[in-house]
Model the fold of this input.
Amino acid sequence: MTQQKTILRALAGETLPTPPIWMMRQAGRYLPEYKATRAQAGDFLSLCYNPDLAAEVTLQPIRRYGFDAAILFADILLLPQALGADLWFVTGEGPRLSTITTADQLAQLKPVEAIHDTLNPVYETVKILSQELPAETTLIGFAGAPWTVATYMIGGQGTPHQGPAHALKAENRAVFQGIINRLTDGTIAYLSKQIEAGAECVKLFDSWAGSLEGDDFTEFSIKPMQKITAALKQKHPGIPVIAFPRGAGNRYAGMHAAIGADCVALDDKVEASWAAKNVQKDGCVQGNLASSHMVTGGKALINETRRICEAFSQGPHIFNLGHGITPDADPANVQLMIDTVREA
Ligand code: 1CP
Done:
């Protein structure tokens, strides 16, 4: 009875007495059991492409905390790799990719139909999870939004202010647009397969949306997410979509309608009472708690958690952080957050 799952009820617009809860990056390095499984896999990418171990790390935070949703363990950069980019992770630094900045390099990318050759293990992970998750837990699939993924493909790594992507956008619009288009089509194909494998909801991470100004924000953050959402809903009627245009500021207002999303994920920069009035009036919201509270805990964590629950208590709400939990977080603070939400 999927409609009994609290996350799906909130996504459908229901106001629940206690908001369901999950956490961005809930499987990760703050958990000793994650570090042990990652060591067993060898490295991060081997973990992503090992369905049994990827399912295991997805399940770890569910076992430890009983979150209402599990998010597939994978990474937004697997899609560029499936399209033919080289990808590796430098320990302690982050991802590195071969860069794509010319028409020739764009032409050398693999066609969208070819991505599944690389991504099949991810669909396998989803299948394992849909068998093994508790009946009340919702399985969330995900992908990066085209702009955010493009910033890594163009810059070859995380870059300050996403400079290389802005430069290509200004200097060679055709190649830039070509990358966005290929990622848009690739994301539709990738998320469709995740849904077919058992994902009950999907989330689009536009972590760097905030650096797009003026018309660029509409053109390269909103439009690709809108196109992906429309295509997924046409293929899979009723599939809920969560959009996370991080850093959107006052442009968060009207975001449900602009994207066609069922839920808009809020970062920790927007004020909860403003977002309740201007964003939640159009549908479910998620997020907002600063992830630094998972490091520092205490009274500030309790007060902030209560303030956010109170601000969003009049409409559909899923409790979450405003961004991913960091490796220096204390697992006990996660439990304190959950206890505070569930007793509030
Ligand atoms: O060392 C390790 O074990 C790797 C750390 C790690 C993890 C746990 C990376 C490398 N990716 C992930 C998993 C991951 N990434 C998930 C899994 C599900 C979960 O538990 O939430 C998800 C949803 C992501 C999404 C992701 N990857 C985003 C979007 C969300 C966000 O945090 O803004 C981005 C930008 C990435 C790229 C990436 N992958 C990994 C790192 C360190 C980064 C960021 C690089 C940078 O700072 O630019």
Summary: The first strand starts at residue 69 and ends at 71. The mean pLDDT is 97.
